[in-house]
Amino acid sequence: MTAHCHCDDCRKSSGTGHCTHTALPKEAVEVTGELTLFDKPADSGNVISRAFCPNCGSAVYSLNSSMSDLIFVRASTIDQPDVIEAQVTVYSSRAPSWDKIDESLQAFPEMPPQGSREVIDDGAMK
User: Fold this and answer.
1) What pLDDT is attached to residue 125?
2) What residue numbers bound the domain in which 43 lies?
3) DSSP three-state, residue 11
4) Phi first, then psi: what are they for 55, rounded to 5°?
5) Is 4 exposed, middle or buried (CB count within 10 Å of its CB: 0-12, 13-18, 19+)?
6) In the chain, beta strands by DSSP E
7) What is the pTM of this model?
8) What pLDDT does residue 44 have?
9) Which of 38, 47, 83, 91 could form a Cys-Cys staple with 7, CB 3.0–4.6 A?
10) How many domains does the chain have?
11) CATH number at residue 67
């Protein structure tokens, strides 16, 4: 599943209006090189670990303590970014007016009421 996220942390860590993350099974992703992790609690209370390059500061991926089998790769770091297509937008209520929401995508004002894991399991990972 790929989602645009307009939460405060994604906006601030990207330096723009949103981040685009692709949720993948951890075992399907190979990361090479040194990364630094920064941990912070999300609105849900789950700990989000953001991995970034210690040399250039580029954000690479995130981990969510409630979904330890998944890795949330920043779409901008994928070598062939055109293979990515977003399915949903989360935290749309926090999007700045200059970063328009794609109306063709299902949008949630905050996190989906059924939880992000259920959204991933209900179709995005198929």
Assistant:
1) 39
2) 2-124
3) helix
4) -90, -45
5) buried
6) 2-5, 19-25, 36-41, 47-52, 59-64, 70-74, 88-90, 106-107
7) 0.84
8) 81
9) 91
10) 1
11) 3.90.1590.10
% of the chain beyond a pLDDT of 90: 61
From the list 68, 67, 34, 66, the residue with the least C-alpha distance to 51 is 34
- Report the C-alpha gap between 21 and 36 in whole angstroms: 18
Left if phi > 0, otherwise alpha if psi is -120 to 50, otherwise beta: which for 45?
left
Confidence at residue 126, expressed as pLDDT on a 0 to 100 scale: 37
State which amino acid sits at residue 71: I
Residue among 40, 43, 6, 42 at smallest CA distance from 21: 6
Nearest to 114 by CA among 101, 105, 124, 126: 124
Token couple for 51: 């991995």
Note whether 3 and 90 are within 8 A (CB).
Answer: yes
Q: Which helix (H) or strand (E) holds 9?
A: helix 8-14
